[in-house]
Design a protein that fits this description.
Signal peptide: 1-23
InterPro entries: Bact_solute-bd_prot1, SBP, TAT_signal
CATH class of the domain at 6-155 and 317-379: Alpha Beta
Shape: globular
CATH topology of the domain at 6-155 and 317-379: D-Maltodextrin-Binding Protein, domain 2
Keywords: Cell membrane, Lipoprotein, Membrane, Palmitate, Signal, Sugar transport, Transport
Largest sheet: 7 strands, mixed
Number of strands: 14
CATH architecture of the domain at 6-155 and 317-379: 3-Layer(aba) Sandwich
Number of helices: 17
Protein name: Multiple sugar transport system substrate-binding protein
CATH superfamily of the domain at 6-155 and 317-379: Periplasmic binding protein-like II
């Protein structure tokens, strides 16, 4: 990810008023938290109680392990709705009222919006940089803006190709190494019977397409001096859209439902869906396929013939210290423990089912073992360890990321309802996103 300074972020708008509009509420806490002197750690023996708002299940069980070893710094986990399902609005409202938790689960793609809303503590002021070598380089770059660190990586989602070997063997196919080979396998699977597909393409969720474009080398948002550049129609994005336009037009993908939906589980269990290009965290979902144990394997993600990267990310969260925390150093220490200490990582996997560990040297004990469900394959070490290192580090999220995704998937739906091409959908979305930047008082220009 490109390094962007917080000064640049703030200079790209019209100050606090733009940040307030962007956050959908008044200026959080009315405090310029990173302009104030750093808050000193608690004195020896002083009792500290932290709160952590997250949508992870059973997070308190992880906190309890920390609490047992750190009697002076106790952490309470409070469950909230997923970010876009209401969690972020709750955080913004609490910040605006001068309160909120010490720690919030914030997706990596959401950090720029929180930054513009002055909602996050720069953990670089509390020594976060000394922990950088504990984290995967690509993941650490997602939380670093200039010299500031605005979250501790919590998990991510490097992608791979999950498939049913029996169904590919039936058409004499191996897992595709390239997207062109993927098209060939998809065509062969379609010939095996009505309703049989290699994969789905979800027009109602733009996140997978964004990941595919990122793998191809797309860079939708960049900074040039004091302005944002929006470029959703670069060569990599257009090529990705043309590819899936063809796949849909030739009826090579299921568009009636998305991966991990009830329809998908039924089709996968019946052998009508042969594979899914999914994130590391998809393994737990795939294990919900009836009768699937021992009938699935994992291969590296197929790559673009014109270049790009070996894999890409789908999803990823941070444990971010929110602006009104009175104990940022203690909050950071807990977050670092939770995401890099083997005991913390193992607990996060066991109780919370987190995605890929951001730690550079430990993926979790449970993920070092062969999986009986996935045909005895040690797929985490074989596939996802290298995939996590084959990422597009030039990708940058923007403060209007969610708006861009919502607009894109609205336009994608018109592929099925009105014949709009995915290429046209990208062009229309870019125009709408540029207008949205301007309407928020942000300085922006279109690259095309």
């Amino acid at each position: 990810m490109k390094s962007i300074s917080r000064r640049q972020l703030l200079s790209l708008g019209v100050g606090a008023s733009a940040a307030a509009v962007l956050a959908g509420c008044s200026t959080p806490g009315s405090r310029l938290v990173n302009a104030e002197p750093a808050i000193a750690p608690a004195a020896a023996g002083e009792k500290v109680r932290l709160t952590y708002w997250a949508w992870l299940k059973d997070l308190q069980k992880v906190c309890d392990i920390w609490n047992a070893k750190n009697p002076d710094v106790q952490v309470d986990a409070i469950w909230i709705q997923g970010g876009n399902a209401g969690g972020y609005q709750k955080m913004y409202a609490a910040l605006a009222a001068g309160g909120g938790p010490d720690i919030g689960q914030v997706e990596m793609r959401q950090i720029p919006e929180f930054l513009l809303a002055n909602g996050l503590v720069d953990l670089g002021r509390y020594g976060a940089e000394e922990y950088a070598d504990r984290y995967d380089e690509g993941i650490w770059s997602q939380v670093k803006f200039g010299e500031g660190i605005y979250g501790i990586p919590q998990d991510s989602g490097p992608m791979a190709f999950y498939y049913q070997p029996e169904l590919l063997d039936a058409v004499g196919a191996a897992p595709p190494a390239t997207w062109d080979e993927w098209l060939e396998v998809a065509a062969a699977i379609r010939e095996t019977g009505p309703g049989n597909y290699l994969e789905c393409f979800p027009v109602s969720d733009a996140s997978p397409f964004t990941a595919y474009a990122t793998q191809a080398g797309a860079r939708w948002f960049e900074i040039d001096g004091d302005e944002w550049i929006v470029n959703m129609t670069d060569d990599a994005s257009i090529a990705t859209a043309e590819f899936f336009d063809r796949a849909i037009d030739e009826d090579l993908v299921e568009t009636g439902f998305g991966a991990y939906s009830p329809g998908w589980f039924a089709a996968a269990g019946d052998g009508r869906i042969a594979a899914v290009t999914g994130a590391s965290w998809a393994d737990a979902l795939i294990q919900g396929v009836s009768g699937g144990e021992g009938r699935w394997r994992v291969a590296p993600m197929q790559t673009w013939p014109s270049g790009g990267y070996g894999s890409t990310y789908l999803g990823g969260s941070t444990a971010a210290v929110l602006a009104n925390s009175r104990h940022p150093k203690e909050a950071m220490d807990f977050c670092v423990w939770m995401t890099t200490d083997p005991e913390g990582i193992d607990a996060m996997i066991k109780y919370c089912g987190i995605g890929w560990s951001p730690a550079s040297d430990y993926i979790g004990e449970a993920r070092q073992q062969p999986s009986e469900w996935f045909s005895g394959q040690n797929y985490n070490e074989e596939v996802f360890v290298p995939a996590a290192k084959e990422q597009n580090l030039d990708w940058t999220w923007s403060p209007l990321t969610q708006y861009a995704l919502n607009t894109l998937q609205d336009n994608f739906r018109r592929k099925l309802t009105g014949g709009l091409t995915l290429v046209d959908a990208l062009e229309r979305t870019q125009s709408a996103v540029v207008d949205a930047f301007r309407n928020k008082g942000l300085t922006v220009r279109s690259a095309a």
